[in-house]
Amino acid sequence: MQSNNELLSTAGRVLFALPFGIIGINHFIVSDFFNGMLTTFIPGGGFMILFTGACLIAASISIILKKYIKLSCLLLALLLLIFILTIHIPQLFEPDKAQFAFMELLKDTALMGGALIIAGIYKEDIIEYKKS
């Protein structure tokens, strides 16, 4: 039976990861919305939207299933940093987008912190090979 701490940790991990999967699916369903957020700092246009969606879905599944969780969280933190640097900060200088961009910047900064905390808690997935 799981302890209260284990139950809280599992619930927190799943609640952290699940929205990333849903947002990743959204990248495929409403790609036009995300296309409007692209700046000149982001190459690849529509492909990058779909690639980002796939990355978010993969990270979500990895975190929920606890497979390669450390690597997934580190890559997720890097992706969020890229969002901050290439989308949110440039939008701070556009008067009609600045307030929304600031809120998104704060949200992604907090999520990046959460991803780094999870990465720090979990050990590397190590596969041990037995010699025959």
Could you explain how this protein is built, in words?
With 132 residues, the protein is mainly α. The chain has one domain (4-121). The protein is 74% helix and 0% strand. It is built from five helices and no strands. It has helices at 4-29, 31-35, 46-65, 69-91, 98-121. Helix 4 packs antiparallel against helix 5. The chain is globular, with a radius of gyration of 17 Å. The chain starts with a helix and ends in an 11-residue tail after the last helix. The mean pLDDT is 87.
Number of strands: 0
Tally of individual domains: 1
Computed CA radius of gyration, to the nearest angstrom: 17 Å
Order of helices and strands: HHHHH
Structural class: mainly alpha
Report the sheet-strand fraction: under 5%
Largest sheet: none
Average per-residue pLDDT, rounded, comes to 87
SS summary, helix count: 5
Distance between termini? 35 Å
Low-confidence stretches: none
